UniProtKB/TrEMBL annotation:
Coiled-coil blocks: none
Record-annotated Methyltransferase type domain positions: 48-137
Molecular function terms, GO-annotated: S-adenosylmethionine-dependent methyltransferase activity
UniProt xrefs under InterPro entries: Diverse_substrate_MTase, Methyltransf_11, SAM-dependent_MTases_sf
Protein name stated in the entry: Class I SAM-dependent methyltransferase
Amino acid sequence: MTDLQQAHALSFGPVAAQYDAARPSYPAELFDELERLAGRPLKDADVLDVGAGTGIATRLLAARGARVLAVEPSDGMAARLRAVSPRIPVVKGVGDALPFHDGSADLVTYAQAFHWTDPDRSVPEAFRVLRPEGVLALFWNVKDRAVPWLRAQEERLVAALPSYHFYGGVTDAVTWFGEHGVPVERVTLRWERRVTLEGHLADLSSRSYLAVLPSGQRERVLAAERSALAAVFPDGSLTEPYLLDLFVVRRPR
């Protein structure tokens, strides 16, 4: 990683509790589609959830009956995962160098995390640890910026935060597969959640582009957002619409 990437990647540990409480979850339809594209149920599958964070997706995979192992490099995030979900095993590691034997998993999943890897390393590593017919699944919850208030918010954040888009996004990460001729199956789901204005701001403040800022600067950005959003949502509650992208890649034979 570059120094800038490293700073952003390390920013999650100190905000782990806030991340776990405020970040969006995932609808059941995501896992229905994952099972359909993988061609197998999650029940009794051996799953490595890489970049597991505080275990938001990990817990849902386990609830579907998967034997899931969380892989997380951040001590702060892993500590929160262990505190909230003590029955889920956690291994310290990164996707670019998975600490597992060849052919040891049915699925490798990345929830909101694949863009933190180097695909030249993380994709071959995923294929190495997958069994024949195993799949690599990548998914991202992304707020629907076509909605006017979210589009206006993004414009404000781009103007206020120099590193807002520094690490790329869904398109940049998945472009790798097209450039390398690796077939990818994609499904996009739409869903939404109702949150308070303060809950929305808590989610926002757990994002790396805000977490890396000095506290004074971060609070100024959040105060500006609170003021702008209060004008749109005077009752203090709002609906966040999401586009949930799922990409499934089957291990080459």
